[in-house]
Every structure is written in structure tokens, then in C-alpha cells.
Design brief:
Blueprint (H helix, E strand, L loop, with lengths): L1 H20 L6 H8 L2 H13 L3 H24 L3 H22 L5 H22 E3 L5 E3 L7
Antiparallel strand pairs: 1-2
Length: 147
């Protein structure tokens, strides 16, 4: 009976954490806050790759992936099919990088090439929807989502 109770508690805790991990982004302010997590995580992932700390790189890229998944709803709400497609492509490319980082041995050149491809997806969205403000920070391009 104790084992069943323990398993039940773990399942509830696990599903509860999944619900809290998924923060649906619906406003430009939430998008900005979510996207601000990406650059530091990418920098940390690159640093981890250089030191061959592949588990750390995967953890940082998981932050990037979560930001992409969280921001998906924003593009759906604003009916931006191109951004939805780019968002989904970026997530798929992050999955490919994660798979490469999970291999033994890790093909560092392959990981770097996959990250470069993923960066291309990021740039596609940035060209259409992001601009730098007076402090050189990325913000949502004024007028890019209407209203």
C-alpha cells in the first residue's frame, strides 16, 4: 500500500510540474520576458560546449526550447502562420541538437552545425518580428502583430 501511495504522489507531483512549466505567452510583454531567457541560455550552452560539458549544454538548450514552446501560443493568437512555422522548426532543430548531444561520442562539429541551422530559424523570426530598441535590446517590432 505504501508503494502505491508513493507512486501516486510522484505522478501527481510530476504532472503538476508539467502544468507549471508550460507558461502560455499571450501578450507582447510576456513574449518579451520569455525571449529574454534565450540569449543567456544560448551563451551558457556555447560555453558548456566549449568545455565539453554536454549535459550542461543540453540543460541550457532545454531553456531555449521551453521558451519556444511557451511562445508558440502568442503566434497562434495573433494568427501569424509564418511565425508559427518558424517556431515549430526551431523546436524541431533544438530536438535535433539535443539528440546529437545525447550521442556517445558527441560530434561537436555536428552540434555546432545544427546550432547554426537553428540560429537561422531564430533570425527568420527576428527579421520579421523583432527590432532593437534604444538600449540595443530586442523588442517586438511595432505594428508587426496589428492593433
Amino acid at each position: 500500500m505504501r508503494v502505491k501511495s508513493y507512486v501516486a504522489v510522484l505522478l501527481v507531483a510530476g504532472f503538476g510540474s508539467l502544468l507549471f512549466a508550460q507558461q502560455k505567452v499571450t501578450t507582447p510583454e510576456e513574449l518579451d520576458k520569455t525571449m529574454k531567457k534565450v540569449q543567456p541560455a544560448m551563451q551558457a550552452a556555447q560555453k558548456a560546449l566549449k568545455s565539453e560539458s554536454y549535459a550542461d549544454a543540453r540543460a541550457q538548450l532545454a531553456i531555449v526550447k521551453q521558451a519556444m514552446e511557451d511562445s508558440h501560443e502568442f503566434w497562434v493568437i495573433h494568427k501569424k502562420d509564418d511565425a508559427i512555422k518558424t517556431n515549430e522548426e526551431t523546436v524541431a532543430k533544438l530536438d535535433a541538437v539535443d539528440k546529437l548531444l545525447s550521442a556517445t561520442p558527441v560530434d561537436t562539429a555536428g552540434v555546432q552545425a545544427a546550432l547554426k541551422e537553428m540560429g537561422g530559424s531564430c533570425n527568420t523570426c527576428h527579421k520579421a518580428y523583432r527590432v532593437r530598441d534604444a538600449e540595443n535590446n530586442y523588442i517586438l517590432k511595432p505594428g508587426s502583430i496589428g492593433g
